[in-house]
Automatic annotation (TrEMBL):
Function: Catalyzes the formation of acetyl phosphate from acetate and ATP. Can also catalyze the reverse reaction.
Residues given in the record as substrate binding sites: R91
Family membership: Belongs to the acetokinase family.
Origin species: Thermosyntropha lipolytica DSM 11003
Protein name, UniProt field: Acetate kinase
InterPro entries xref list: Ac/propionate_kinase, Aliphatic_acid_kin_short-chain, Aliphatic_acid_kinase_CS, ATPase_NBD
Catalyses which reaction(s): acetate + ATP = acetyl phosphate + ADP
Subcellular location: Cytoplasm
Binding positions for ATP per the UniProt entry: K14, H208, L209, G210, N211, G212, D283, L284, R285, G331, V332, G333, E334, N335
EC class: transferase
Name of the gene: ackA
Pathway the protein contributes to: Metabolic intermediate biosynthesis; acetyl-CoA biosynthesis; acetyl-CoA from acetate: step 1/2
Enzyme Commission numbers on file: 2.7.2.1
Residues that bind Mg(2+): N7, E384
Active site per the UniProt annotation: D148 (proton donor/acceptor)
Length: 399
C-alpha cells in the first residue's frame, strides 16, 4: 500500500508519499504561500531532479489538486494514478482529551478538531482545511488523523492539572496537553531499541529541540510529564516563545505596552524567546556565532536556554526516579553538538557525562555518552512522517 502524508499549515502544505511495503519515501514536497500571490510548489521525487512550479493557488483544495497532478505526472511523478494511494494520513496538532491515539476521520473527529480551534488557533484550522481539501479530492480512501497531543494523554492528573479552580478544568478543559507527540513517540521507541531493553521497562527523557522545543519524561511506556502545556507556549525557552514565565508579567506588559489579548498572545509567541533575549535572531546558529564574537546579549540568551533545559532534566530524573537515557532530536538537538555539550555540562552528579569527541556529529543516530556515563546520551533524528504513515497504514488495514 502507498500512503500519502499531509501536514497542512495556514498557507502551506507539506507532503510525503510512502511505499509501506518497504517504508521508503517515494516523494516529498512543499506548497508554500497558499492563498498568497507567489505560490510555489517544490517537489522532490526519489531518484529524480527536484521540480519547482510557480502557480498562484487560491486555497488548500487547489493546492492539493496541484500536488496530486504532480504525483501522477508522467515525467516526474511517482505513481501512475491516485488509485495507488490506499490511505491519507493527516498531522493534527490538537485533539484535546478526546484522542489518546490516531483515528480514522469521520464527522465526530472533525467536530473535535473544530472544537479545539480556540486552544490551537494557529494550527487546527489549517489542519482541518487540509483534511477537507483531501477528502473532497479523494473521497473513497480512508483518512487518518494523527494528533500531536495523543502521545501525552497517559499523564496523570498530578502532572496535567494546573493549580486553578477545578471548575476551570471541568468547564473549559484547561490543563497541560503537550505537543510534538509523534516526535517524542518515535525517538523514545528508537532509544529503547538502542538500549536493548523492552520499551515498557525504560526510563527515557526526550528533548525535541528546534525553533519550537519540548521535553518529555517517559516511564514504562507512558508519558509522565512534558514541558509544553495548555498551548505550545509553556516550558523551554524557544526561538520566539518565552516558555515559562510569571503569569503576572502578561498583565503587567499588557498595561505598560498597551496591548490587547490578541497582541499579547502574538508578543509572547513571536517576539520573545531567543529572539527577544539576544536581539540577534531566533536561530541558535546565528546566536552562537554572535556569542563567539563577544555579543553579551547572545551569551546571556544561551545561558538562559541551557539552564532551562538543565532544570527540566533534573525535574524529570526526580519524577522518573532515575533515567536510562537522554535523547536529543529535531533541528537543534540533532545538529547542534555544541548545544548538546553545554546542556550536559556539569550534570555528572546525575550520572550524565558526554564524550566531547563522539558528540561532534550532526544528524546521525549515535550514542555520544562517555563510556563511564551511567545515563546514555543518544542523538536520534526524528521521523514524524513515518509515525503518521505507520498509523495510517495500520488503521487503513483495520488493525
Amino acid at each position: 500500500m502507498k500512503v500519502l502524508v499531509v501536514n497542512a499549515g495556514s498557507s502551506s502544505i507539506k507532503y510525503q508519499v510512502f511505499d509501506m511495503t518497504t517504508e521508503t519515501v517515494l516523494a516529498k514536497g512543499l506548497v508554500d504561500r497558499v492563498g498568497i500571490p507567489g505560490t510555489t510548489l517544490e517537489h522532490k521525487p526519489a531518484g529524480k531532479d527536484e521540480v519547482v512550479i510557480k502557480k498562484d493557488l487560491p486555497d488548500h483544495t487547489e493546492g492539493m489538486r496541484l500536488v496530486l497532478e504532480v504525483l501522477t505526472n508522467e515525467e516526474y511523478g511517482v505513481i501512475k494514478s491516485m488509485d495507488e494511494i490506499g490511505a491519507v494520513g493527516h498531522r493534527v496538532v490538537h485533539g484535546g482529551e478526546s484522542f489518546a491515539q490516531s483515528v480514522i476521520i469521520d464527522d465526530h473527529v472533525k467536530k473535535v478538531i473544530r472544537d479545539c480551534f480556540d486552544i490551537a488557533p494557529l494550527h487546527n484550522p489549517p489542519n482541518l482545511m487540509g483534511i477537507e481539501a483531501c477528502q473532497a479530492l479523494m473521497p473513497n480512501v480512508p483518512h487518518v488523523a494523527v494528533f500531536d497531543t495523543a502521545f501525552h494523554q497517559t499523564m496523570e492528573p498530578a502532572n496535567y492539572l494546573y493549580a486553578l479552580p477545578y471548575e476551570v478544568y471541568e468547564k473549559y478543559h484547561v490543563r497541560r496537553y503537550g505537543f510534538h507527540g509523534t516526535s517524542h513517540y518515535y525517538v523514545s521507541h528508537r532509544a529503547a531499541d538502542m538500549l536493548g531493553k523492552p520499551y515498557e521497562e525504560c526510563k527515557i527523557i526526550t528533548l525535541h529541540l528546534g525553533n519550537g522545543a519540548s521535553m518529555a519524561a517517559i516511564k514504562n511506556g507512558k508519558v509522565v510529564d512534558t514541558t509544553m502545556g495548555f498551548t505550545p507556549l509553556e516550558g523551554l525557552v524557544m526561538g520566539t516563545r518565552s516558555g515559562d514565565i510569571d503569569p503576572a508579567i502578561v498583565f503587567y506588559l499588557m498595561e505598560k505596552l498597551g496591548m490587547d489579548t490578541k497582541e499579547a498572545n502574538n508578543y509572547f509567541n513571536k517576539k520573545c524567546g531567543m529572539l527577544g533575549l539576544s536581539g540577534v535572531s531566533n536561530d541558535l546558529r546565528d546566536i552562537l556565532e554572535a556569542a563567539k564574537s563577544g555579543n553579551y546579549r547572545a551569551q546571556i540568551a544561551l545561558e538562559v536556554y541551557y539552564n532551562r533545559v538543565k532544570g527540566y532534566i533534573g525535574n524529570y530524573i526526580a519524577k522518573l526516579n532515575g533515567c536510562d537515557c537522554l535523547v536529543f532530536t529535531a533541528g537543534v538537538g540533532e545538529n547542534g553538538w555544541d548545544i548538546r555539550e553545554n546542556i550536559c555540562k556539569d550534570l555528572d552528579y546525575l550520572g550524565i557525562k558526554i564524550d566531547p569527541e563522539k558528540n561532534k556529529v550532526r544528524g546521525k543516530e549515535v550514542d555520544v555518552a562517555a563510556e563511564d556515563s551511567k545515563v546514555r546520551i543518544f542523538v536520534i533524528p526524528t521521523n514524524e512522517e513515518l509515525v503518521i504513515a505507520r498509523d495510517t497504514y495500520r488503521l487503513a488495514q483495520g488493525k
